[in-house]
Specification:
Helices cover 12% and strands 45% of the residues. With 155 residues, it is mainly beta.
Length: 155
């Protein structure tokens, strides 16, 4: 009888015990990083582009211009609606971005003002050349700076 009692107690104890918890998930694994944007080249944007210049927060077109881009950084310029052809300098490529500097030139946005320095960062996105520019204007008072969005479509 003692054996039966011991076996019964062992079975009850085994039935009441909890199973060992499964091992915790491995949290040291690093998730795959998002794919980097494809690198851009001057060759991929070479050509003529029709641009709209807009405020940062609206789709209102403030002015337009036509950008001529080439595989050679020295061959970049844009034509203002006034007919002024503006030479673009310091064209550089870094990853998916192209940065440029231009100026001085007559502003197409602010009447009777001269842009002394325009710095633009372009990215090729869905077949369009998208950009953000910072314009510094010549003034006699405090510095005058504005930012704009650019959106260009290839001719």
């Amino acid at each position: 009888m003692r054996v039966n009692t011991l076996v019964g107690i062992a079975l009850v104890a085994a039935g009441c015990s909890t199973r060992e918890a499964p091992p915790a998930a491995d949290t040291t694994t690093v998730a795959a990083a998002p794919a980097e944007a494809a690198a851009t080249s001057l060759e991929s944007v070479a050509g003529t582009w029709n641009f709209r210049v807009m405020p940062m927060d609206k789709d209102t077109t403030l002015t337009t211009h036509v950008l001529t881009a080439s595989a050679d950084p020295a061959g970049w310029s844009f034509l203002q609606p006034s007919g002024e052809n503006v030479k673009v300098r310091d064209v550089t490529v870094s990853g998916d971005s192209i940065t440029t500097v231009a100026g001085p030139f007559t502003s197409g946005v602010r009447a009777k003002m001269t842009v002394k320095d325009l710095r633009t960062v372009y990215r090729l996105q869905d077949g369009k050349l998208i950009g953000v520019a910072t314009a510094k204007y010549e003034t006699t008072g405090a510095d005058s700076v504005r930012q704009f969005r650019f959106e260009g479509t290839r001719q």
